[in-house]
Amino acid sequence: MCLAIHRWGNVSRRALDPQAVNAILKQRATEAGLEAREFSAHGLRSGYLTEAANRGIPLPEAMERSRHRSVQHASSYYNSAARRSGKAARML
């Protein structure tokens, strides 16, 4: 669980909400000289699962890190990765 840290440095037991994570990510992207609109918290999370699939990491292990609860939802990223790198894709 990620703990919330207020802008004044106070730590809260309440978890960060998705909008806060997204705002932090966009702010850091801007500070790094990147285009903030190209980044999102969802993109990082889904990109992590896609890359895990590409690297052959077992789905349950990747789900522990991404904190996905739904196997059906998480496996959709694995299925997409398999379609892009499978035998049929290599024929192109």
TrEMBL record:
Biased composition (Low complexity): 74-83
Pfam families: Phage_integrase
InterPro entries: DNA_brk_join_enz, Integrase-like_cat_sf, Integrase_catalytic
Domain of life: Bacteria
PROSITE patterns tied to this protein: TYR_RECOMBINASE
Record key words, sorted: DNA recombination
Region (Disordered): 64-92
This protein's name: Integrase
Organism: Rhizobium giardinii
